[in-house]
Amino acid sequence: MDVLIVGAGPTGLTLGIDLARRGVDALVVERAEGLFPGSRGKGIQPRTQEVFDDLGVLQEIREAGGPYPARMIWKDGERAGELPMFEKVAADEGAPYTEPLMVAQWRTQEILHARLAGLGGRVAFGREVAGLEQDAEGVTVRFADGTTARARHVVAADGGRSAVRRALGVGMAGETVDPAPFLVADVRVRGLDRDHWHTFPRDDGSGVALCPLAGTDDFQLQARLPEGREPDLSLAGVRELVAGYTHLGAEDVTELRWVSDFRPRAALADRFRAGRVFLAGDAAHVHSPAGGQGLNTSVQDAYNLGWKLGAVLRDGAPEALLDTYEEERRPNAAAMLGLTTGVHHGEVTRGRATVQLGLGYPDSPLSTETRTDPAGVRAGDRAPDGTVDGVRLFDAFRGPHWTLLGAAAPTPGVRALPAAPESYGPGVFLVRPDGYVGWAGETAAGADAYLARVGLR
User: Fold this and answer.
1) Which CATH number fits domain 68-97+179-263: 3.90.226.10, 1.10.3720.10, 2.60.120.260, 3.30.70.2450?
2) What H or E segment, with its residue span, contains residue 84?
3) N or C: which end of the chain has fewer CB within 10 A?
């Protein structure tokens, strides 16, 4: 096969979808017997909504969740104040999605899995990786049951404790973001309205929050415990926790559906590529959950890598194109780690920085700006939405192709529109399959040479 993807979380499933629509022979393997059952990564940021729009799942994602409620602060059993969870970011033609969506992670994965299956892709569950060896032609992966699989490339999307990363010997440097133990759980609770994210802080910094999970009957329980207190993950322990921090009684927690504990840390893999193996998602970077960046950064890893693997494996692009995955995504992940740590410590607000619409690749070797005095959108920037001759740009971008704005297509397989929206500024813009401007020029001269350089001619 072409690609073996290890891990059926949001990262692995997103990559599987992108490769399937490009005709790449890929298989997703997952050590568990089924999809992840919890709500953990529930925030879908606006940039990820744009990715899901392109992949054909945004409508289902929107129907599966809803907006974030305001935060209600409780003190001594009384409502003490209400605060918005996020700073408002105004929507416009170029950025139609500016509000984060709340969707339980298990539901996001169900939708992605269904989309993958609809494209002919599949997930093999119960396949635990035990080791791997690679050579000049490919990678042999060994599974715990004694079987093996052979692929031209392997992508590790198997989480923060990645077995593939350990097998490669790639280090992961990081730091503890918070020394306190944390607990997260999906529970059924009575006695709270579903219009607020209910928070119950204590003066010592510990506290409990109960957030109604949009699209479900559950609440997500989040708790920061005092240092030295070991989390009790049983139903009795969760009931005791809720009763101790809120005005609810232990009996008001009627069901414990999923639970986990963790200590927030920020860590970044030393490399995102080792030969024919790539690290993506939590296997490459681990975030504090504050600010809702982890799942989103992970999905965008897959989105960046998918078109490049497709170009090399199906379109004859040079292998060097795959080097740009680490060159683009590792600095991006490092910046997101700093952002999430800042949000965790209250130094950064949840607003324009966390919606990820301003992220780009201005320093990438794939970003070529040839205009002498560029204004508006530049090479390396996210390509905004807009309308040209009655065609919405996001509709034009949707699919695994490149798009040229402002001139006729220089080569087959590139969709062309006669102009760019006024918001782009003057020039001609070549938009990558992942929605970033790769090349910009005064005229179309040079677009053909750029495509040849990245191997698409």
Assistant:
1) 3.30.70.2450
2) none
3) N
